[in-house]
Amino acid sequence: MFGFKQLRGLFSTDLSIDLGTANTLVYVRGQGIVLNEPSVVSIRQDRGPGGPRSVAAVGAEAKRMLGRTPGNIMTVRPLKDGVIADFTMTEAMLQHFIRKVHPNRLFRPSPRVLVCVPCGSTQVERRAIRDSAEAAGARDVFLIEEPMAAAIGAGIPIHEARGAMVIDIGGGTSEVAVISLNGIVYSNSARIGGDKFDESIINYVRRNHGTLIGEATAERIKIEVGCAYPSSEVRELEVSGRNLAEGVPRNITINSNEMLEALHEPLSGICSAVKIALEQTPPELCSDVAERGIVLTGGGALLRDIDKLISEVTGLHVHIADDPLTCVARGGGRALELIDEHGPDLFAND
Amino acid sequence: MSHAAHSDIALDLAELGQRLRRARNTAGLTPEEVAQRLHLPLATVGDLEAGRSERIGTPIYLKGFLKSYLKLLELPEDWAEQALAATSVVQTPPIMPAAGAVARRVSWMERYKWAATYVVGTALVLTGVQWLVSNTPQLGFPESPRPAASVAVPVPPAAQLQVAPLVAPAPEAPATSSVAVDEATADEAPVMASLSPFRLPADADAEPGGLLELEFEQASWVEVRDRNGERLAFQTVPAGEKRTFSVGAPFSVLIGNARGVRAVAQGKRFDLEPYVRGNVARFVIATEGQGWAPSAVEREGRNGG
């Protein structure tokens, strides 16, 4: 009954991992969020194609290499649309992160791990995440749906018999869910997120300025001047990119009104997902949502005036959670603390 | 806006509500207009201005509403956080248990309940079996061939040897009641076991014919088994000694160094030579009429291997 696994468990603390497309956050039980790094892995391939491959860098260090690597180093983002696109890389990344938060070198860490999964992910995708975490050294793997973790992290009283709507706009996916009595009543996942915003900005700049910019620059534009709803204040940012016609670097100035136009398409995708969710929600819960409003979490909630946009589209009040980037990881951490006391009510099935 | 004027009063929800109401009146807005602009129910606007938090409850919603209202009236948004910090009415909500539902507690014991029950149950059963085995001498052989044999031997009452107490009650026992036979034979068992040194039973004095006497001229070993194959004697006897066995026929005798032993059955000497193979004599003594008749043992069964 008290086997070797449990014995090893004594030397590892439980982890909650928000395995996001853009960032991976690790919450350690009793310590809070200890790691927040981009989900990027750099692989070095020595002695040409087919040669031995080794991990060159993981996380922030690897992200700095993104788009700037020589031929023998390949930088990949192992997750796409919230799910695993490259199993081996994800495993290597998780292993690195688990080791990083477990400084105990005497024993190989074997923590219990809770991983957040998009509610729209398929069984195969969930199994891939579970296997990947197990291969990275996890003793037990629990899966929790992202909106549920986000709601817990935002401080929504999910145990009440009252509907609460949460929108989690992550790097790869946007999740809309109505939660009541510790369970998800309705959930909808759109594969639109921060990455899609960046992509739209790259396309917009190429189309309207004839200039090619990279992902990192697009992300900077989004953070600095990106906005979702027209406002009286217009911000500007000067960036440089390669002019497509001349083939040489040129500086261009982007303003927030242009961003409004650039982000129109992905944002309308999110809005329609929210509207569909409201249409599908049972009327009792819908009235609860109307009374209390919608809670916005995830990195996408940091986009300027996105709450105003959703509020205008739905006619409901929209709250932005405190520290929306870490909501999912914090919520996962709180759920993890309840594993021993309560059943797997909160967790997702395979 | 005269924000500085408010700063000396402690900011709690009631105070914040009053400030909101004053600011709204200054801005010339009605509660309905505020509700419409903030997409809020009118009752919630009333609650916010009155500083009531019971109906809204959770901090995340309360803070969101207050911040939006403050933003609308162009007041500093951090007032909301100050007011919430000063008012400890609302706390972080518990996640579980679900309202009105029974919380599912999966404790360690509950999780392993079945495994624990199985282990304890198996341990109990094994202990019971162990106790039974150690306290019951012949548990493994409840259907001992002894009663069957004692019933099956066709000994007419007239031909009773009357030498061995073992067989004496056998014919009297009803053949159909194996229980009675069992009891009878079980009662006799200690008598069979106490053979060396042999004490003549009182009734055996009258008829010494039931005795097997062995005179050992040389050191030898002897084994005597009764009809059930139970060993009555198995010992090494030094030269010059004499052993007497009182047994009910048929029984088997095995004598090592047979040439140094002389046998007397029912008072009659008989030659061991026909039964000697190697230096070991094997023979069976069976009843024949009123006497004993030794015969060679077939090399099968126990010694056959």
Structure overview:
- The complex is a heterodimer of chains A (350) and B (305).
- With 350 residues, chain A is α+β, with helices and mostly antiparallel strands.
- Chain A has helices at residues 4-9, 60-65, 87-101, 123-135, 146-154, 194-209, 215-225, 256-262, 264-280, 283-292, 306-314, 327-337, and strands at residues 15-19, 23-28, 32-38, 41-45, 53-58, 73-76, 79-80, 83-84, 112-117, 140-145, 164-169, 174-180, 183-190, 211-212, 236-243, 249-255, 294-297, 318-320.
- In chain A, a hairpin with a 3-residue loop joins strand 1 (15-19) and strand 2.
- In chain A, helix 5 (146-154) packs across helix 12 (327-337) and helix 6 (194-209) packs across helix 7 (215-225).
- The longest helix of chain A is centred in the last third of the chain and has 17 residues, at 264-280.
- With 305 residues, chain B is an alpha+beta fold.
- Chain B has helices spanning 13-27, 31-38, 42-50, 59-72, 78-86, 108-111, 113-135, 145-152, 178-193, 301-304, and strands spanning 211-216, 220-225, 231-237, 242-246, 251-255, 261-265, 268-270, 276-277, 280-288, 291-296.
- In chain B, strands 2, 3, 5, 8, 9 and 10 form a six-stranded antiparallel beta sheet that branches. A four-stranded antiparallel beta sheet of chain B has the order 4-1-6-7, with no helix packed on it.
- The longest helix of chain B is centred in the middle third of the chain and has 23 residues, at 113-135.
- The model of chain B is unreliable at 1-5, 97-106, 144-209 and 300-305 (pLDDT under 50).
- The interface between A and B is large, with 37 and 34 residues.
